[in-house]
Fold:
Amino acid sequence: MVTDGPADELARSFQVDTWVHLLGGFVSRNTGFWKWIGNRETAMLADALQSIQIRQPVYVTSLARSGSTLLLEILNRHPNLSAHCYRDYPMLFTPYLWNRYLARTPQSNARAVERTHGDGIFITPESPEAFEEILWMAFFPGLHDPLIPSVLDARTAHPDFEIFYKDHIRKLLLIRGGQRYLAKGNYNITRLAYLLKIFEDARFVIPVREPIWHIASLIRQHRRFCAGQQAHPRALPHLQRVGHFEFGLDRRPINTGNTERLAHIIELWNHGAEVEGWAHYWAYIHDHLADRLAADQQLQSAVMLIRYENFCQTARESVGALFDHCGLAVDETLLDELAATIRLPALKRPAMFSDDDLATIERLTAASANSLGLGSAALPQAVHAMK
Structure:
């Protein structure tokens, strides 16, 4: 999505290339056709895919702006893990054929540019990114309708999706030459039990960020995306097609099942009460997570909760614990390299918040943080859920 453009940073960040806009739109409007083509691609690769096993896929998920991209990039450095990257879009339904095409097409040496969020994370076409949401939307209509609960749990069954999804992962592993699948997806926070049903040995990594700074980041991004989409209208349909509704002109909160509570959050936002709305939403999402973990011992064992601030503060130990949870051996050199890239963000009081704002955030989020064992400033840098 990010290309060279005008000097204005916001303008550059939200530009969408014409070919991406047109081809992405064609794929999005014809998902039934592309699912069929994807199945034909799978049949063509039957012999090559037969020997590829999906073992212990790793899922990074949480509320947006929690540190999930940092964790994705750290995990993606491990040679055994393979993830989607920016160049996989828009032909996600046929990853093998698309990557074969790209390998035979002259590619410019794209320089690293700061991603749309303007948060200091620089990307290239090879950078890992969350794209599997496109597949979920193709098989589960209405998945992002705030009026419809979007929780998928152990009772969910969709054989067509499960077959296609597993085949897609095998094709990605074939393309990348990896041994295990890595995915980031904010919306998977409501699909943990379903994913664990599909892959009984899956590992989940869930960062949780201190509410004050987390909500400040969410508000800044929402303002930024609204401005960027207004300046560049192509940005809005692009983000809709890839399944990013966290901020911007088409902001859609996740419905975890309590529609009445979510309606109150939407009403607050509609009336301009951004801080109160986001504080309620922070609690809403994390209450859902706490309830799911408390009710499912198997899920507890598969999940690692990471307090973002403590992770950054004790980087080397935290990265080691992360790889250990995922069942990945890591050499000391890589551990040192990764730890050296992590910096604790400045935790100054966000200038956007008044004393009343801070009191509101504390009042509305404290119980939810405590329910996850995250209320104490002395919390270890990485804890296994509910243990």
Summary: The chain has 18 helices and eight strands.
